[in-house]
Amino acid sequence: MTEIFDLAIIGAGPGGMSAALQAAEFGASVVVLDRKATPGGQIYRDVTQSPLLDPSVLGVEYTEGAELVNAFLAADIDRHQNADVWHIGENGEVLYSQDNQTRRLVARELIINPGAMERPFPIKGWHLPGVMTAGSAQVMLKSDGMVKDGAIFAGTGPLLYLIVAQYLRLGVTVNAVVDTTPAGGIGRALQHLGGALSKPAYLIKGLKLLNEIRKAGVPVFRHASELSVLGESKAVGLQFKQDGRTHSVNADHIFLHQGVIPNLNMTRALGMDHHWSEQQLCWTPTLDDWGQSSIPHIAVVGDAAGIQGAEAARHAGRLAALQAMHKLGKVNKSDLGSMSADHLKAMNAFKAFRRFLDAYYAPPTQQRIPTQNSTLVCRCEEQTVGQLRAGFEQGAKDPNALKALTRCGMGPCQGRQCGHTVSELLADWQSKPVSEVGYYRLRSPQKLLSIEELSHFQEVQPAPKPAEVSA
């Protein structure tokens, strides 16, 4: 008979590591599966083995993650890196790929932490060689110490300015910052000023980043619109409008960014309840304050639960683990309340601050919902706005019907790069709320699998406790 883990955690980002450490304090058998070679997630990627001579150029929030990663590595936790989960069953079964083998384990409770992804940025030429997301620029920097001189950074959101500042601290030239944040951001955000003032250190940090870029002399074009990548076979520059004038900036590398959104493929494949967040303009799992989903034994933490940031993810991970320990009978209800109080208070403060950020940096409609028929939407299946509109006019009124007619969303990314755009396009064409249009229906497996891999199968079970061995 297969032995069962008390808790399986998928993803070793700030939320997953914090949850594992909290559960380990109660003597639970904990297993963590993470698809990367080292723990840390995106925010703490390679923090304990950075290729940079001085990792502090990436910022205090990054280097402080080393303490959490080291604590996670030292704890009595069953860790599996390079473990890519592709199926979660209703009975707590988890199937994943590791070392070209299929492996299986079962857990009583699960906490999933699949992280976030950058919001699709469907403009003319966004598929050309030389165009990447700003997050990709940061991954190259953190993992390999690689940078691209003379790039353009375009879009909106605080992460865009952080990555530009990181480049500048390393002496890398930046040709331009093209900021698409619509005018009137302060006016939109003022109603949430109280939440912003609850986190003054974050406000100060943001102002310092802007001042750092200004002092470096990087051209910054604010309130830009109508972006299009120049070039036929590869990117050679970016064209845009500002104050009624058309501008062009030359560059071989263009990094696009308009915020991050939850990575939905795992939560959607599980059949979890989701809702459309008007605040963050994205689909989000429907959860309670402890991260509990509509599936009784599964919680979601980190940015997959709604974009809050690394520090908030740590509190969310602790909350989900405490709730799991309560459900397993290791924490009584009274202790659950007292142990959770500080984390719940911290989460409320982060949510209030996030409302300010989301109002200020709301990505403009024209950058989310493309109108030109030639603009590519589904990069995997090469489907344009015009082709999708033709499918809509044939009767495809929801994303799944449109997928059946056009193959949009059937490629290797399984809709990650087009899902939100398709939902918003269909809502716009029908003058309906996005919540009524829906999203793709996803199923396992959540990655490409080979027959060879499936032919190598291994059960993974908890290690016996010392008392069990002596008995």
UniProtKB/TrEMBL annotation:
One Pfam entry name: Pyr_redox_2
Keyword Oxidoreductase: yes
Domain FAD/NAD(P)-binding positions: 5-126
InterPro entries assigned to the protein according to its UniProt record, in alphabetical order: BFD-like_2Fe2S-bd_dom (IPR007419), BFD-like_2Fe2S-bd_dom_sf (IPR041854), FAD/NAD-bd_sf (IPR036188), FAD/NAD-binding_dom (IPR023753), Metab_Enz_Cyan_OpOx_G3PDH (IPR051691), Opine_Oxase_asu/HCN_bsu (IPR017224)
Molecular function terms, GO-annotated: oxidoreductase activity
Top-level taxon in the UniProt lineage: Bacteria
Record's keyword terms, sorted: Oxidoreductase, Pyruvate
Span of domain BFD-like [2Fe-2S]-binding: 376-427
Protein name: Pyruvate/2-oxoglutarate dehydrogenase complex, dihydrolipoamide dehydrogenase (E3) component
